[in-house]
């Protein structure tokens, strides 16, 4: 049976469809088998990853636990260190000393309590010459220096020769005195003769009156010549008419000398400055607001800034006028100076003492110390001393009023408290290192 062309085409189409179906089935089986294997491998990989992740989480938890423990330990240590620092800060200025060490250092413990303190005000001052007992010696006659027996710094007595000059002016004045004395002798002789003649009625009264007038004039001339010599400090008689001896006007010390041998000096030249240093002035200036507290006769304590010395006196002068520029008044205290300790030019502190005032809490002045710019005292403790900052008030140099920081009855270090200040400084240095 012959197959038509149409049938051939249908058979080819059927074969092609079958081949395609067979190929699709085969591809599906192969792909499914490979996907299952991959799924199994992926499952195993995921399981391993989960296991590894769990291990990492375990290790991470362990590390976190370890870190938390370490951190907690650090925090505890930090809290402990902070507590120690806080404990140290709570007791600053602590000085540990045994009773034996305190006794060996000579530290005296006393109680703070009420006392009477004299109020006062302090002024800076300076020791100056007592101008009432200071002289600028001038020759009062021009001349040439022949000798200078006095030296600067020498203590001289009143009337002692300081220098010798040759003066022509003095020679003329002494010659005038000698001539007046000779005329006086002649006038006296004439007067006596005329008086006898007049009394004997031999001569006229007029002759006697002329002789008496001449005598009186001669006496005046002598007195005038003597007064001229006295005015210049020269003696009325000397081995040489021109010899002029310059003498000390009072007991004192030569503090300045401006004369030398052979020098020609004028009559107004300041050749010596002589001062009696047995009494000196302590001068200070007072502002307008303090004038009410500085009055004549007020008691004063003068302390030296160069050495440990003090003296007591009274205000002897307060200026009645204020300076136009400074608006202050000068005041001074006259001090006796038997040992010559108060030398002119020395700076001092002048404390004008007022009325005594009762204060509730006061301590000896030796108990007060300065530490790092603070005023402190040292409180007595069972095992040593503790520094305590205080605020001070009035003082008389021996007792100091405590305004704040200390109660009455508190036991503090008084004598030799500077030892505690030194110990505190050493402790601070060791702590800083």
Molecular structure report:
- The protein is α+β, with helices and mostly antiparallel strands.
- It folds into 3 domains: 1-90; 99-128 and 277-432, Efflux pump adaptor protein, beta barrel domain (Elongation Factor Tu (Ef-tu), domain 3, Beta Barrel); 140-273, RNA polymerase II/Efflux pump adaptor protein, barrel-sandwich hybrid domain (OB fold (Dihydrolipoamide Acetyltransferase, E2P), Beta Barrel), CATH 2.40.50.100.
- The protein has 5 helices and 22 strands.
- The strands form 5 sheets. Strands 3-12-15-14-13-16 form a 6-stranded antiparallel beta barrel. A 4-stranded antiparallel beta sheet has the order 1-19-18-17, with helices on one face. It has a 4-stranded antiparallel beta sheet with strand order 4-11-9-6, with no helix packed on it.
- β17 (369-371) and β18 form a beta hairpin.
- α3 (168-199) packs antiparallel against α4.
- The longest helix has 85 residues, at 5-89.
- It is elongated and about 230 Å long.
- The model is unreliable at 24-90 (pLDDT under 50).
Task: Please render the helix and strand layout as text.
Elements: H1 5-89, E1 94-96, H2 99-105, E2 109-111, E3 113-128, E4 134-137, E5 143-147, E6 155-156, E7 161-166, H3 168-199, H4 205-231, E8 243-247, E9 252-257, E10 264-265, E11 272-275, E12 279-287, E13 299-304, E14 310-318, E15 328-336, E16 347-364, E17 369-371, E18 374-381, E19 384-389, E20 391-395, E21 399-404, E22 411-413, H5 418-432
Helix pairs in contact: 3-4
């Amino acid at each position: 049976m012959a197959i038509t062309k149409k049938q051939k085409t249908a058979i080819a189409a059927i074969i092609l469809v079958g081949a395609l179906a067979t190929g699709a089935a085969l591809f599906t089986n192969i792909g499914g088998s490979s996907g299952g294997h991959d799924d199994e491998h992926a499952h195993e990989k995921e399981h391993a990853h989960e296991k590894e992740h769990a291990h990492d989480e375990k290790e991470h938890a362990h590390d976190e636990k370890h870190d938390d423990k370490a951190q907690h330990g650090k925090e505890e240590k930090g809290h402990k260190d902070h507590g120690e620092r806080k404990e140290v800060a709570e007791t600053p200025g602590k000085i540990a000393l045994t009773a034996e060490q305190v006794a060996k250092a000579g530290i005296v413990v006393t109680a703070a309590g009420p006392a009477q303190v004299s109020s006062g005000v302090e002024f800076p001052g300076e020791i100056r010459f007592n101008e009432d007992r200071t002289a600028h010696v001038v020759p009062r006659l021009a001349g040439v220096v022949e000798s200078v027996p006095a030296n600067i710094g020498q203590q001289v007595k009143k009337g002692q020769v300081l220098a010798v000059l040759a003066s022509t002016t003095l020679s003329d004045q002494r010659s005038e005195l000698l001539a007046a004395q000779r005329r006086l002798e002649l006038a006296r002789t004439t007067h006596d003769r005329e008086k006898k003649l007049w009394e004997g009625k031999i001569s006229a009264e007029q002759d006697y009156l002329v002789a008496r007038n001449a005598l009186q004039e001669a006496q005046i001339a002598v007195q005038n010549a003597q007064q001229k010599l006295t005015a210049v400090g020269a003696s009325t008689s000397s081995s040489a008419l021109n010899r002029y001896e310059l003498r000390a006007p009072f007991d004192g010390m030569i503090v300045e000398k401006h004369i030398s041998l052979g020098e020609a000096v004028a009559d107004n030249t300041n050749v010596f400055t002589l001062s009696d240093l047995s009494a000196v002035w302590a001068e200070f200036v007072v502002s307008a607001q303090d004038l009410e507290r500085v009055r004549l006769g007020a008691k004063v304590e003068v302390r030296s800034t160069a050495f440990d010395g003090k003296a007591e006196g009274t205000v002897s002068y307060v200026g009645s006028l204020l300076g136009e520029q400074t608006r202050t008044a000068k005041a001074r205290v006259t001090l006796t100076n038997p040992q010559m300790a108060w030398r002119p030019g020395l700076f001092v502190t002048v404390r004008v003492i007022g009325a005594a005032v009762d204060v509730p809490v006061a301590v000896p002045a030796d108990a007060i110390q300065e530490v790092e710019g603070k005023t402190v005292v040292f409180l007595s403790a069972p095992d040593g001393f503790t520094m305590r900052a205080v605020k001070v008030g009035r003082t008389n140099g021996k007792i100091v009023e405590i305004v704040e920081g200390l109660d009455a009855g508190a036991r503090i270090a008084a004598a030799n408290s500077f030892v505690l200040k030194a110990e505190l400084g050493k402790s601070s240095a060791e702590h800083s290192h």
